[in-house]
Amino acid sequence: MKEIIRTESLAKYFGKMAAVHEVTLTLQEGLFTSVIGPNGAGKTTLINLLSGYLLPDRGKILFQGNEITRLGPDRRVRMGISRSFQVMNIFPRMTVFQNILLPVLSRLNKTSSAFSSLLSQKEAVGEAEKILGEVWLKDEKDFPAGELSHGDQRLLELGIAVASNPRLCFLDEPSSGMNPIERIKVLELVKKLAAERKTTFIIVEHDMDIVFSLSDWIVVMNRGEVLAEGRPAEIRANREVREIYLGEEI
Amino acid sequence: MKTRLAILFLIIFLAVLPAFAGKYLLYVTIHILLLSIFSLGFNLLFGYTGLLSFGQAGFYAVGAYGCAKILLVYPSLLVGILGGVALAGVASLVLGVLCIRHTRIYFSMLTLSFGMMIFSLAWKWRDMTGGDDGLVGIPRAPLEVPGVFKINMAAMESYYYVVLGLSLLAIYLFQRIIRSPLGLTLQGIRDSETRAACVGVSVRKYRLLSFTIAGLYAGLAGALLPPLESTVTPPVAHWSHSAEPVLATLLGGIYTFAGPIVGSVLFYLLKDIIVRFTEYWLICLGVIVVVLVMGFRGGVVSIFLKEGSRR
B198, A121: Cβ pair inside 8 Å? Predict the structure, then answer.
């Protein structure tokens, strides 16, 4: 097993509140990892720090051994780290196809090409169409993305996140706002993409059934700190974890 | 196909216009073409990148004064225009670095301030700009490439063709840009800056690029003015002049390619007509813009487009 991303005493404060406090964590390549914890545990802040959306106040982040602590999100995407957002974040005025095409063009370093037409970018167009198929949005290709249903928009976000061909991809509640059946479908899709694309996914998820059935590794956060990490069975047996979930059956 | 035919007819119409139009109509058409170039560049920033600039007249003025100064020293139309455009490009690149660090209202206020700084320069730097008298006696120099050709520009018709040619070129290039990967990238930044950054787009770099292209377009429109009017005065840099592409674009439609052009035609004609009746033409125009913005958010052009084919 190889380490993919590591943090050393990572900390982020909002005023006096420690959103993420002294987090030292190593995540392994190829392990489908879930980050769980009660509301306000610092899960989203951790992902924001790891993806470059926020810069930490203290500590270090290393991606495949290289320090990336102060790099912006666009630089990190180029190194192979992408993400989706908890609150819907797509390009609403562009078509579904264009939503996927942009990250592909960006990866192929074609975004500053000013005078060629979009369709003349054969390689990018081909890849974007393939990805559309992978996230089940082929028929919606020419729709304005903002007019898709909520569920399809979440699929599109997933498509945008994988379109930059990341080694490591963070998904912040990829199934939020979906019904239980859709949730399972989406998370199984994520697992499938992980296997096919050799991408390591780190997800934040609230549905404990799904988390425990699909994850290879679970990180539990509470009040900005990592409370526990381990295989699903280990986490299920952990007394502290059970306590923060107030005795909920997990 | 229909659109192509319509465009072809429009170009032919513009090409044969001098055969039957009088001087005044040519003069008006030139002004409409200048406003179109000015508005197109502005809309690359506004409609396509999501940045509302209130300072574009500053770059228009740099182009105009730059071209005028060159023509006064070295009477060659080509050198004057290219020089004016280049100066506007440099100015927008330098000020762009400062402006694009912010977005929304902060960006708008910054551009407004820098625009007014350029206005103050034009107003106060007498030795360079002639102050409130402006620069006068600018020759409509011949279009020449030494040793290759030399075309006299004394007749309004000749100059009209230069402006028409450059406008069509600018419009064509603009159309290429917005349909290119660069155009898509700018639209991505407009739709969601954070999402764009998180797919690997360097948001600041592309904002600066958009700002500079808009500056070049403003500079081109500005550089074409002094040979027409033979004077340049500080009002070309004033914020109320920056409002012209804003209004023209809102009239025509911000998310459409042709919006700013259609808007420019309407804006100029409305202004020309209303001015005959009242000096408070801006109030009347304001009412029209308000009605359009409230009733047809996509501008005049969107009325003719089907909902689904909007771009």
Answer: no
Q: What is the CATH number of the domain that holds A73?
A: 3.40.50.300
* Per-position DSSP letters for chain A, written without gaps between them: --EEEEEEEEEEEETTEEEEEEEEEEEETT--EEEE-STTSSHHHHHHHHHTSS--SEEEEEETTEE-TT--HHHHHHHTEEE--SS----TTSBHHHHHHHHHHHHTT-TT--SS-GGG-HHHHHHHHHHHHHTT-GGGTTSBGGGS-HHHHHHHHHHHHHHT--SEEEEESTTTT--HHHHHHHHHHHHHHHHHHT-EEEEE---HHHHHHH-SEEEEEETTEEEEEE-HHHHHH-HHHHHHTTT---
Q: Are residues A151 and A184 in the same domain?
A: no
Residue B180 has pLDDT above 70, yes or no: yes
Count of domains in chain B?
1
Distance from CA of A112 to the nearest CA of B (A): 5
Whether A170 and A248 share a structural domain: yes
Per the structure, the complete domain to which residue B181 belongs is given by 22-237
pLDDT of residue A246: 56
Chain A residue numbers with beta carbons less than 8 Å from the beta carbon of B254 are none
Same domain for A122 and A229, yes or no, is no
Average pLDDT, stretch A219-225?
88
Of A106, A131, A164, the residue that ends a domain is A164
Q: What is the number of domains present in chain A?
A: 2
CB contact B29 to A (< 8 Å): no
Task: Tell me if B185 and A115 make a contact (CB, 8 A cut-off).
Answer: no
Split at pLDDT 50, 70, 90, the class of A86 is: confident
Is B94 a residue whose pLDDT tops 90? yes
Residue of chain A nearest B206, judged by CA positions: A112
Query: Is the reported ipTM for this assembly greater than 0.90?
Result: no
pLDDT for A249 equals: 55
Last-in-domain residue among A141, A164, A187: A164
Give me the domain span that covers residue A102. Answer: 93-164
- Structure confidence at residue B106 (pLDDT): 92
Check residue A33 and give its pLDDT. Answer: 92
Inform me whether the C-beta atom of residue A163 falls under 8 Å from chain B C-beta atoms: yes
